[in-house]
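[Meeting: bench + compute handoff]

Bench side (C.D.) handed over the final construct sequence. Compute side (W.E.) agreed to return the predicted structure before the next meeting so the bench team could plan truncations. Sequence as handed over:
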Amino acid sequence: MSAPQAIEAAAEARRDASITFLRELIALQPKGEAEVQAHVADALRGLGCVVDSLRYAPTEVPMRHEFAAAAAMDKEERASIIARLQGSGGGRSLIFFAHPDGEPITGLERWKHDPFAGEIEAGRLYGWGVSDDLSGVAIMVEALQALKEAGLRPAGDVLVTSTPSKRHARGVAAALHHGYGADAAVYVHPAESGQGMQEVKAICSGQLYF
């Protein structure tokens, strides 16, 4: 069995466990971002990662190109969870980003499903923050779990980062300013095309300008 086949088989075998982990993140949403991040950190430590909690004030994170007014940002200190899975050596590194913070919890009376139960209907899982972006956070953790269960370790380091402040990119920027980087990056977020995680967009330096 090839490495990709082994990873796919491990991921398929963990389907129910992966859904359970995502549901756990959904259920923690009413308790706040810190509870979600603590659960993510515990899961990553259990996979043998070195985990750091990077605290930052969104308004104090410098940006190369500013695109948000300070008045629009939350002044509350936030924490990014940054985990490193040490590679076997000699390979290029990869960093994954996803954000744990969703929209403010309002309008619950309009929901057909329990917003915090992760109910499945017609092949879709419903829950607060699932597509923006708890599914991305869960996928990062479960990807490392699939690697472990397939008995594989990448040659290069793999970094998994759960970074808040989604609208203003402060969580990502804070991590980069503190020296967390890699040879390539993957932003794990469902596509707005409606294809969810089935759509992959490849972007290189210089292709986009903000």
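W.E. noted at the follow-up: Helices lie at 3-13, 15-28, 33-46, 130-149, 170-177. C.D. will use this when planning the next construct.
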